[in-house]
Specification:
Elements: E1 2-3, H1 11-15, H2 18-27, E2 30-36, E3 39-44, H3 47-54, E4 59-60, H4 71-74, H5 89-98, H6 103-107, H7 110-124, E5 129-131, H8 132-137, H9 139-149, H10 158-167, H11 174-200, H12 206-217, H13 222-235, H14 238-253, H15 255-263, H16 268-279, E6 286-290, E7 294-296, E8 299-301, E9 306-309, H17 311-314, H18 349-366, E10 371-372, E11 381-383, E12 388-390, E13 394-396
Helix pairs in contact: 7-9, 7-18, 10-11, 14-16, 14-18, 16-18
Length: about 400
């Protein structure tokens, strides 16, 4: 039996998808739902099943293995990147950029991330009001990844519009695909021009490193280079925006946990992990494609079927987490799946963690009496497919002077 079209793009469900995901998990841990363009997708919702499936070699990341998808629907960006390939291609692509995202190298970025964070908050703290997504959660990771890759500062903010159009409601009807394709083409043209400019005028940045490695060793073809640039740029900031926005809202909704962090700021690293589990950016989950017939949770999946690994449902599974719908910033359980698992574990996880830790520590120390400045029903969300996050987060706080100097 196939469940009728899921309401993940319904504004009320998008505002809080967890009750719906809980009902699906309780109905059946592996259930076929009618999602993308009225095509059936197997949704896996139980933690143990999702964890195992993330490392299952018979489930591919490559959308070309999906029997129901047309060539146009598979796109030409991510299918040539790490996120759309399997070993050994994935191994080769990942090795090329892994040096830039090691925990040690990322930790070396801490002073610069702190500097960017402080500068952003200096603009906000004297006012006592802010729109925290647009004024803080977005520009922080955009600046960091832009500097790391070598994207001109004047171009960075334009990516939000294109990214929203490409990632927002990707499981809706055909009319939305027109908008997605148009945004993809604009991004394609911009990135091609950016790479051409880097070839003409090399710089000390990651994109120049990728180009030079390609030119010298033929390790990336032109489409792979374009896809890698796209993935690093978009994935390098979108999830962190949602981590900061969703996480701040979760703390405002749980003032006792916010008070715990004020009383003990050393809990911030643990809090970041708990916020990733509780309401992380990947919601409902990530897609895989069956390379052959297999079983998941006792349910037969046929070759070519699409399988959605519902990370958000798994991370609220009572079979894995005690009191999964509660927020505990002191939790020492690191078992969430927000960054995935296995060979496709998020390459940017150390950077996202660091940005989250610096951001939340700064918000705690520099925005006293932080509170929500809008009704819950006024908050707007983006998502409905792979990622979910706040569009805006209006807040108030006690004004404080900007830092001297």
């Amino acid at each position: 039996m196939t469940v009728p079209a899921t309401p993940l793009v319904d504004p009320a469900v998008l505002a809080d998808p967890h009750p719906f995901l809980t009902r699906l998990r309780e109905s059946s841990p592996v259930l076929q739902v009618d999602m993308r363009m009225n095509m059936p997708v197997w949704m896996v919702t139980r933690y143990d099943d999702v964890l195992a499936a993330l490392s299952e070699p018979r489930l591919s990341n490559d959308p070309h293995h999906a029997g129901a998808l047309t060539e146009a629907m598979r796109g030409d960006f991510l299918s040539r990147s790490m996120i759309g390939t399997d070993p050994p291609e994935h191994t080769r692509l990942r090795r090329l950029v892994s040096r830039a995202f090691t925990a040690r190298r990322v930790e070396g970025l801490r002073p610069r991330i702190q500097e960017i964070t402080d500068a952003l908050l200096d603009r906000i703290t004297p006012r006592g009001t802010a729109e925290l997504v647009g004024e803080f959660a977005l520009p922080l990771p955009v600046t960091v990844i832009g500097e790391l890759l070598g994207v001109p500062e004047t171009d960075r903010n334009v990516f939000r519009t294109w990214t929203d159009e490409m990632l927002d409601r990707p499981f809706d009807l055909h009319s939305d695909m027109t908008r997605v394709e148009a945004a993809r083409e604009r991004m394609h043209g911009y990135l091609a021009d950016l790479l051409a400019a880097k070839r003409t005028k090399p710089a000390d940045d990651l994109l120049t490193d990728l180009i030079q490695a390609t030119d010298e060793g033929e390790r990336l073809d032109p489409q792979e280079l374009l896809a890698m640039t796209f993935l690093l740029l978009i994935a390098g900031y979108v999830t962190t925006v949602s981590l900061i926005g969703n996480g701040t809202l979760a703390l405002l909704r749980h003032p006792d946990q916010l008070d715990r962090l004020h009383a003990d700021p050393a809990l911030v690293p643990q809090a970041v992990e708990e916020l990733l589990r509780f309401d992380g950016p990947v919601n409902p989950g990530i897609m895989r494609y069956a390379l052959e017939d297999l079983e998941i949770g006792g349910v037969r999946i046929a070759r070519g079927d699409m399988v959605l690994l519902a990370i958000a449902a798994a991370d609220r599974d009572p079979g894995r987490f005690p009191a999964p719908d509660g927020l505990d910033v002191g939790s020492t359980d690191p078992g969430h799946l927000a960054f995935g698992h296995g060979v496709h574990y998020c390459l940017g996880a150390p950077l996202a963690r660091l940005e989250g830790q610096v951001a939340f520590a700064a918000l705690l120390s520099r925005l006293p009496e932080l509170s929500l400045a809008a009704r819950e029903d006024e908050l707007r969300w983006t998502g409905g497919g792979v990622l979910r996050g706040l569009r805006e987060l209006p807040v108030t706080f006690t004004p404080t002077p900007a830092r001297a100097g």
